[in-house]
Amino acid sequence: MKLLSTAALLLLAAAAPAADARRAAPSSVATIPRRSGGKRRAAFVKRSDASAASWTSDAREVRGGEGGGTATMTSHMFNLIKATVGVGVLSLPAGIAAFGDNPSAVLPAAALIASIGAIAAYNFSLLGRLCAMTGATSYRGAWEKSVGESTAWIPGSSCVIKTFFAVLAYSMVLGDTFSALFETVGMSVSREKALIGLTLVVLLPLCLLKDLSSLAPFSLAGMAAMLYTVVAMAIRYFDGSYAKEGGFAMDVAESLRPAIGTKGASAVFSSNAFILICMLSTAYMAHFNAPKFYLELKDNTIARWNTVVSTSFAISILFFIGIAAFGFATFGGASNGFILNNYSTKDSLASFSRVAVAFALVFTYPLAFTGCRDGLLEMMKVPKEERTDAKLNNLTYIVLGLVTAVALKITDLSFIMSFGGATLGNALIYVYPALMFRSAVKNMGEDATAAQKMEVYLALTFAAVGIGMGCVGTKQALGL
Q1: At 340, phi and psi to the nearest 5?
Q2: Which residues contact 466 (CB under 8 A, 6 or more apart)?
Q3: How far apart are CA 417 and CA 219, in angstroms?
Q4: Predicted TM-score of the model (pTM)
Q5: Which 8-state DSSP code applies to residue 287?
Q6: What torsion do the CA atoms of 375, 380, 386, 388 make, to the nearest 10 degrees?
Q7: Residues 6+ away with beta carbon under 8 Å from 31
Q8: CA triplet 327, 14, 6: central angle to 5 degrees?
Q9: Please, which pLDDT band fits residue 67 given cuts at 50, 70 and 90?
Q10: Is residue 129 a contact partner of residue 280, using CB atoms and an 8 Å limit?
C-alpha cells in the first residue's frame, strides 16, 4: 500500500505545476482563451509574419467543437492505457533479472516502475499543455512552433525509428509465440520458419491494405490479452506449478527453469539496474501520440487532461508491476526477455495467453507498421498526392523485409527494449519535451508566469536524468 500511495503522490505532483500555473495568471499555459462561441484556442502561437520571438494570444483554432474533440474522459483513459500497456511489458521480468535473482528484488523494481511511470506521466501531460500553448497538432508540430522548423527533423526521425523498434518487437514476439503454439499441438516448427511463414501468409497481406479502419476494433483484444496474462501469471505463481517440485518445471529447457538466488533488493544498486530503467522508457512510450490524445479529448481543459493522464498512467503502473513481479518471482534470474517463453507449452493457461497475445498482435501489427511506413514518407517529404499504391506497396515490401530480417537475427526482446529505451525512448519522453517547453516559455517573454519559469527547471532536471540514464543504459545494453 505504501508503494501505491507513493505512486499516486508522484502522479499528483506531476499534475501540480499545471494547476499552479492555471491559478497564477490569465496568460498561463493552463488558461486558453475562448472566442465568444466557446471554441478553444491556442494560448500562444507564433505569428507567421513576425520574428521568431514574436508571440500572440490572437491565435488560430486548436480544435473544432466545444474545446477539443469528442472523446469522453472514460474512453480516453481506456485508449491511453491500451496504448501504454503493450507487449513490451512482457520483457520487464528480464529487466529485474538483469540485476537480481531473489524475489525481494521485486520491491525496488516496483519502486522504479512507479517512479519512472510518474515522470513519464508528467512529460505526457506536458506535451498536451505544449499543444495548448502553441496550437500544435503533432509532436513534430510542437517542436516546429517552439524550437523551430529547421531542426524539426530530429524529433520526427526519432518517432519513425522508435516506431520501427516497436514493429520489430512485434515480429520477434510473434516468431516466439507461434513457434511455441505449434509445439503445443505437437508440431516442431522453428522460430525462424514460423516468423517467415507468418510474415508471407498473414502480415504482408494485412500491411498492404489501404484501409485499416476494419482492424481498429482488434486493438481492444490487446488490452484483454494483457489482463488475462497478468491473471494467469498470478495463478501460476501462487499455485507453485513452476516450483522445483511443480508439474511444469521439468517441461521447459533448463535455462528457462526457475533460478532463485541470493541477489535481492540491495542488488538494485548495481549498474545493471539501468537495463530495467531503460526498458521502462520503451514500455511507457506513447508520447508521440500525446498531441492527438489532447486534441481529441472533449472539453480539453488542463484539469481534465491531467486527470486522464494521471489516472491512465496509474493503472498502467499497476499492470507493469503485476507482470514484472509475478513473472520474476516465479522464474527469478532465469526470466526470459519474453516471459511467456518461460512457461511450458503444456501449460493450458500460458498457451491460451500466447493465443490471446498472438491474435491481438497479428491484427494490430498493420496499425503500427503503417505508422512507421508513413513516417518514412513524411521524413522523405513525399507529398500525399504522390503516394500511389505502387509506391506504398514497394515501400511496404522493403520495410517489412528489413524488419523480418532483423527479427530473425536478434532474438532477445529485452535487448531491443533496453537499447531502444536508452536511446530514443529517453529522448522522446524526457529530453525533447523539456527543450520544447523551455523554448515555448522563452518565446512567451513577459507573458510567462513565475510558475512556468520555475517549471522549466523541473523539466530540464528530468531531461538531464533521462540523458544520464540513457548513457549508462546504452552501455549496459550493449555489454560494454
Answers
A1: -65, -20
A2: 281, 426, 427, 429, 430, 431
A3: 21
A4: 0.79
A5: G
A6: -50
A7: 22, 25, 43
A8: 50
A9: low
A10: no
Residue 466 grid coordinates: 533521462
Q: Are 264 and 103 in contact (CB under 8 A)?
A: yes
Is the CB of residue 115 less than 8 Å from the CB of residue 346?
Answer: no
Give the span between the Cα atoms of 310 and 306, in whole angstroms.
6
Please state the separation of Cα 159 from the chain's center in Å: 11
The 3-state secondary structure of 334-373 reads: CCCCCHHHHCCCCCHHHHHHHHHHHHHHHHHHHHHHHHHH
40 bridge partner residues: 34
- In angstroms, the CA 99 to CA 106 distance is 11
Within 8 A by CB and 6+ apart from 121, the residues are 11, 14, 309, 310, 312, 313, 314
Kindly report, residue by residue over 404-442, the tens digit of the pLDDT. Answer: 999 999 888 878 877 887 788 889 999 999 999 999 999
The alpha carbon of 22 is separated from its chain's Cα centroid by a whole number of angstroms, namely 28
Hey, is 310 helix, strand or coil? helix
C-beta of residue 316 within 8 angstroms of C-beta of residue 117: yes
pLDDT at 51 over 90: no
User: To which H or E segment does residue 46 belong?
Assistant: strand 45-46
Core vs surface per residue 2-39: b (16+ CB within 10 A) or e: eeeeebeebbeebbebbbbbbebeebbbbbbeeeeeee
**How far is the C-alpha of 347 from the C-alpha of 184, rounded, in Å?**
9
Partners of 105 in the β-ladder:
none
Residue 80 to residues 91, 294, 299, 384: CA-CA distances in angstroms?
20, 11, 17, 28
The answer to whether residues 86 and 361 touch, using CB atoms and an 8 Å cutoff, is no
Three cell numbers at 147? 524550437
Chain-centroid distance of CA 53 in Å reads 33
The answer, yes or no, to whether residue 27 has pLDDT greater than 70, is: no
Cα distances from 191 to residues 102, 359, 422, in angstroms, run 30, 17, 27
